[in-house]
Amino acid sequence: MTISSDTLLYFSFSSKPGTFGATIYRELFLRYGLNATYIPRIAPPPDSLVKSLMQVGANGASISMPLKSVLISQLHTLS
After folding, report:
1. Which of 24, 37, 72, 77 stands the most exposed, by the fewest C-beta atoms within 10 Å?
2. CA-angle at 29, arms to 24 and 34, nearest 5°
3. Which of 79, 78, 71, 77 lies closest to 50 in space, CA to CA?
């Protein structure tokens, strides 16, 4: 897959990120013809995470606990 400015970016943040979720999501994106990728990363400090996601134009992110409870008050929408 080639990532371009049209690629939808999704992230997973955890203290110990794995590749299981990325493998499943990438397969689903391919199966349904979506120009999207799911990228696991070590969680940055909470005060910079939301700003960083907005700067890169992320379309969504999975956040593990306990970081999730810290970030809820900074989010625009939850689903």
Report:
1. 77
2. 170
3. 71
